[in-house]
Amino acid sequence: MTFQDFINETLSTFNLNKKSTTYLKVNRTKAQQRKLLSIFILIAVMIQAVLAFSISLLDYLRYNQMNIIIFQLLGFALSIETIAVIIWTWLHSRFSPNEKLRLRSLLKDFAEENDILRKHKSDIDTTQSIRWQYYIESNLIYITLYPGGHVTPSRTKEIPQALLAFFVKETRYKWFLEQYHLGDGFVKMIYSHKPDKALTVKGYEDFRQSSDLRIRLTERLDWTSKQPMGLIVGPTSSGKTTLIKYLILAFLINNSKNKVYTIDGKGAYLSQSMGIIGDVAISGNDAYQMISTLEKMMNERYDELNHDTSKDEDVTYHEKFKSGQTLLIIDEYLALATTMQAEDKLRKPADRLFPQFYAKLMNLIVKGRQASIYVIISGQMIPTSILPSEARDSLGLRIVLGRISQVQATEIFNSGLSELPSADSSRYEGLIFLDGLGLEHPIVFKTPFYDDRQLPFKGALRVLNSERCSHRSEI
Ligand SMILES: Nc1ncnc2c1ncn2[C@@H]1O[C@H](COP(=O)(O)OP(=O)(O)OP(=O)(O)O)[C@@H](O)[C@H]1O
Ligand SMILES: [Mg+2]
What we know:
- By secondary structure, this protein is of the alpha/beta class.
- The chain folds into 2 domains: 11-192, no CATH class; 200-305 and 315-474, P-loop containing nucleotide triphosphate hydrolases (Rossmann fold), CATH 3.40.50.300.
- The chain is built from 14 helices and 17 strands.
- The protein starts with a helix and ends with a helix.
């Protein structure tokens, strides 16, 4: 480790909310470390004492009198050093107020208490080592252990639970093991201090504004521009449209320049209400027109972004022009696709709309992010014939509401049903996968509780629309 790395690593432990990965190599037991530290401090104190004594002796020989100031300085330096050592030890102990430093101490202690790093035969033999990697994001504590061959596979399996038990024993906090994954040569674990909670929407104050996409999904999880494209699947009455209504309000309130385009395959509630504030399509033809407009908008935005080739920057359209972001919502995609395909049977192959619609949709999903155009697709089922598996990988936000089948588990999350946690569908819960969070498997998603009677959707849209109109006329 270079000196620069050392400084960076030490400083990074103070950045609690920034995702910065910290590595911790453990190759000495605690007793060995304490011994080493005491020897180091003793030598430093002795050097200072000898120095002070020699200087005062020289003074005495030269001027024939003792210089007391040197001893006073020595006393002062020693007390500063003692205080520094005490503060440092406290900060790096399990009593530290800094979560990362506390974690550091706990991980070291765990390795020793569980004898993962077997006691060395001698102090000189310190070549055995394990490595921890840890960071904290969105109140989740991500820990990876690289045991380096010092732990048998059967013991490796026990580590996530053992570490949880150790944390509970050693600290005053609550700990939850959210997820773990046993890989080749490593164990990844995710812990938290409190279980996630559903949001309750009572009024506008429950939404927040931000310059970039940042929408609260639960107390802990946010939908951000890291996962601009989304998929929501669930049987009838599982809460898809309600979740979409929440996302639309949140998206519009997030930034007053944001725009929503809606395609409602069943021409139901969403199509009636969304006309208040944006464009709506119900028929296959209208949907095709809408997606063509958005694709054109995307291409124009790319042209504008690429216009100035002198600058080598990878920014999104919204970041560069502060234009606001655009969201395309497709509710009941299966119904839309079925209708379009049925209508297509009456057309000549070259005039068929669905293949063209589908190609444009894929284009938006794959390329939309940089043009600040996002897509959310929803439906009771989304078979691979209308959304191929490759497109699913581009959908960084994936939610399944209600009961999940084996086919859905594989298609949507690429996991076996047995690997998935169980959600309580009676409380509109589901499973969520969010890209960029370091999750291996989806986790339980507690949908925001949104009751139309508390905050009428149409009324809210009217208010938002009139706010925008008056804002525009002021400009
Ligand atoms: N998050 C929620 N909070 C409160 N009530 C909810 C929530 N989700 C769903 N509901 C209730 O369940 C009803 C059905 O939900 P919703 O219409 O969103 O389901 P859906 O999945 O869109 O069904 P469909 O496939 O039939 O369109 C809603 O009218 C609402 O009363
Ligand atoms: Mg619905």
